[in-house]
Design a protein that fits this description.
alpha+beta; 18 helices; 27% strand
Length: 824
């Protein structure tokens, strides 16, 4: 029988055929684990998620399955983090068409969520097992009569490496019957393809002289089974024997390492060979698990557990147990609690001869009678403790207590080194996490996006849920964003937090109030961390953790560091947003608020400023009434783009409006505008424009116009001919003493008047430029039936489609069709 949890994973290529392979893999593993009752639901969701990854996102997909006594967890990871799942969760069911299949299938899971990183997206689902189905599953297809006992596979090999013996446990572990493998070379059963095991396997002949380690053996189902194996040579080299167990049971067969010149007594106090050699081969948790197994065996104890002092915390954590529930691993015990070293005398053993009279909560449900606990000290500092417990009252002698202390002393250096290495790896991981978090937060200048990034950073790495509150002008918190590991709980959590936010954040008046905890409806540990930017609190983060697992030590420092970075990023984004809003408002004031209207004329306009951050720039237009049925129009182009050009735009537009409405002729208006621009000094810019007054003249319009250095307007006659009108005169902002003269033209009913800026005419691909000829040809092809706005849009499309590159210059076009507007 395999111990829980069970774990399997496989990566599938970006190929439609991978979906069927993933389904088959999931069903095969669940049935092999005796979890077939969940196979149909799991396979359905695996099919949906793998399809989404390998077909729609076109990336590889990594499918991972984990089984414990309560649930099955499924994870599908792909390499397309920017592609969100096609699920429309905010629309009513009758409106949400895309992603409905995933929403329906996700309803089969007990819980689900999505984790995003900069390189991947991982969707996870949990399926809770019914209470009567939560028994320990099996690995092999047929359990036989091995329930409740360990399996040690014994394989006998000839001198040539052929299988000559194969016991029942080998069949249970690997699926092969003895008659199916007898006479086959042992090498044929080994999986020498690199995988989860990194051991470089020697040859079978070398193993026959004595070898132990971890490798993979091919199960009859063709799946590799990772085992710990011990190869023992037989008398006079006549073949060898191989003992194999599941890796978590390696303590059953692992031979102690013996150093040259080491005496039996040294080997005993050296903890039966569990020194550097074992630590090199094993991860820290595996090493500690093997240690408590050896202690339990050496002292004939009924249970053992090992504690480690957590860095930066005044508490111990259970890191390994034997003979006790595995759920105790990870339990944290404050210094001074029963079952840990006495905080007043931590270097002395703790002996409890009768646990019924002196209860130890950690052992309260074990039925044990006595215990002895000794400290593990390195460099005169207690870094942990190891405890042995007996079912009997006064179950340990003085000699056994002394031996336990000797074992603890032998473990101290290696254990502390492993602990420090693990802490250093964890710290490097946190530093990398903080660096990536800083990059993500610094990359956004949008306030809402910055808060959303904060939630994605924190959940689930630091907390199970995260909420961002920002203070309003009165200092009251306003809920902005909510993230939860289980996305189904987001809305209930939002409602609860909004209710609490309405009451105000208790205990957050001081900037250093970091440890205000409350209890949510789900029983989580909740921590509020202020968001402080430039010495001012702008809000707070609310972080939730599982009950009994509050943020402490290094994770708490990380949470505070993320809060500082998030606060500065949010404040910068908010300031940027305010400045951008002010800039946009000022830029919008440089243009008419809507498409102008003129009685007796159909009007069309297009305007685009160069650059994604600009709504107005150096080009501008205007059309406004000046009385007696007359209208003044302007189309202008300031040299350059951006805010500096926009400032001259505002000066020109408002000066022309004021002087024309005051009754000045166009020529006088432009002469005064020229003087005003030159008076700006270093801030002045060259300006070209065409400005005129439209007088009603029966069915026609009389046009009085000046073209000051600007491209001449085009008129599309009723016969389809396109002609320029006017003569070019001096541009503005160059010469102090300049004189302008007005020209008079007549526009007949139905004719089209088009004035544009250089952003239209100077659009180019290499040496080829759109020019006046290209615009005239487009206008000639339109015919006489299009409304003015449709003509303006055709001009815009002509410019945009002339080259795939984004426009680098501002663009404006004013189109007037003489007579009543034409129906679209």
């Amino acid at each position: 029988m395999s111990t829980l949890p069970l774990h399997a994973h496989r990566t599938f290529a970006a190929d439609e055929r991978s979906v069927a392979k993933a389904r088959a893999f999931a069903r095969e593993m669940l049935e092999a684990w005796d979890a077939g009752d969940l196979a149909d639901s799991v396979v359905l969701l695996v099919s949906e998620l793998v399809t989404n990854a390998v077909v729609h996102a076109d990336t590889t997909a990594r499918l991972e399955l984990r089984l414990d006594t309560q649930s099955v967890r499924v994870e599908v990871e792909d390499l397309h983090p920017r592609r969100v799942l096609p699920m429309v969760v905010d629309q009513p069911a009758e409106e949400a068409e895309e992603g409905r299949g995933l929403l329906i299938t996700f309803s089969l899971a007990s819980a689900w969520g999505v984790d995003y990183t900069s390189a991947s997206k991982r969707v996870w689902l949990r399926f809770d097992r019914p209470a009567d189905q939560g028994s320990t599953p099996r690995w092999s297809p047929e359990p036989g009569d091995t329930e409740g006992r360990a399996q040690v596979a014994v394989v006998e090999l000839s001198g040539d490496g052929l299988v000559t013996g194969w016991n029942d446990d080998a069949t249970q572990l690997l699926g092969w019957r003895a008659d199916e493998v007898s006479g086959r070379h042992f090498d044929e059963l080994l999986d020498r393809v690199p995988g989860d095991h990194d051991t470089e396997l020697p040859s079978t002949a070398t193993m026959a002289h004595g070898w132990q380690g971890t490798y993979a053996v091919l199960h009859k189902s063709a799946e590799p089974v990772t085992v710990f194996a011990s190869h023992v040579g037989r008398v006079r080299g006549r073949g060898s024997t191989v003992l194999m167990v599941a890796t978590e049971q390696r303590a059953l067969i692992e031979r102690p390492a013996t150093r040259p010149g080491q005496s039996p007594q040294d080997q005993e106090t050296g903890f039966l060979g569990l020194m550097d050699e074992a630590l090199v081969r094993l991860q820290l948790d595996e090493y500690l698990m093997l240690a408590v197994e050896r202690v339990r065996d050496r002292l004939s104890a009924d249970a053992t557990y090992l504690l480690m002092l957590r860095d930066l915390d005044e508490e111990y954590e259970v890191r390994a147990v034997s003979g006790l529930s595995a759920t105790l691993v990870g339990t944290r015990l404050p210094a001074g609690d029963p079952g840990v070293p006495d905080h007043r005398t931590p270097h002395l053993p703790v002996v409890v001869t009768d646990l019924t009279k002196t209860p130890v909560p950690l052992l309260s449900e074990s039925g044990l009678g006595s215990m002895v606990l000794v400290p593990i000290a390195a460099e005169n500092r207690v870094v942990g403790a190891i405890c042995a417990a007996s079912a009997h009252v006064e179950g340990f002698s003085t000699d056994q207590s002394v031996l336990l202390q000797q074992i603890a002393n032998a473990l101290a250096v290696a254990t502390d080194r492993a602990r420090l290495q693990a802490l250093e790896r964890e710290r490097r991981g946190w530093l990398t996490f903080l660096a990536e978090a800083g990059d993500l937060l610094a990359g956004s200048l949008d306030q809402d996006m910055t808060m959303a990034i904060t939630g994605q950073i924190v959940v689930p790495k630091v907390a199970t849920f995260c909420a961002v509150h920002l203070d309003d002008d009165r200092g009251h918190p306003v809920l902005q964003q909510v993230w939860h590991e289980d996305e189904r709980l987001v809305e209930p959590l939002r409602a609860e937090l909004e209710e609490k936010a309405a009451l105000g954040p208790p205990g957050l008046d001081e900037l250093d109030a970091l440890d205000e905890t409350v209890e949510s409806t789900n029983g989580e540990e909740v921590l509020t961390v202020p968001l402080v930017a430039r010495g001012r609190r702008i809000g707070h983060l609310t972080l939730g953790r599982p009950a009994g697992d509050p943020l402490r030590g290094e994770p708490l420092l990380v949470a505070e560091s993320v809060a500082r970075r998030a606060a500065m990023a949010i404040e910068n984004a908010r300031a940027h947003g305010q400045l951008r809003a002010i800039g946009n408002a000022l830029q919008r004031s440089l243009l008419p608020s809507s498409i102008p209207e003129a009685q007796g004329m159909d009007v069309g306009v297009v305007y685009e400023a160069a650059g994604e951050e600009s709504t107005a720039g150096g080009d501008f237009y205007d059309l406004f009434p000046i009385g007696a049925g007359r209208y003044c129009f302007v189309v202008g182009d300031v040299c350059g783009t951006g805010p500096e050009a926009a400032a001259v735009t505002g000066l020109a537009r408002h000066t022309i409006r004021a002087l024309v409405l005051a009754g000045f002729p166009i020529s006088d208006v432009l002469e005064r505008l020229n003087s005003a621009i030159i008076a700006e000094g270093e801030r002045s810019r060259f300006l070209t424009l065409v400005c005129g007054v439209l007088h009603p003249d029966g069915d026609a319009v009389r046009l009085e116009m000046v073209s000051a250095g600007h491209p001449l307007p085009l008129v599309v006659r009723n016969d389809g001919k396109v002609v320029p009108v006017g003569r070019p005169q001096s541009l503005l902002g160059v010469v102090d003493d300049v004189r302008y003269f007005e020209e008079t033209h007549r526009l007949a009913r139905g004719e089209l008047f088009v004035a544009v800026t250089d952003g239209v005419l100077e659009r180019r691909v290499g040496q080829l430029m759109l020019g006046e000829e290209g615009l005239a040809a487009e206008l000639a092809s339109l015919g006489g039936s299009l409304p003015a706005q449709a003509v303006a849009e055709r001009v815009r499309r002509l410019v945009v489609e002339f080259t795939p590159e984004a426009p680098r210059d501002d663009m404006a076009a004013l189109v007037l069709r003489i007579g009543q507007p034409v129906d679209a």
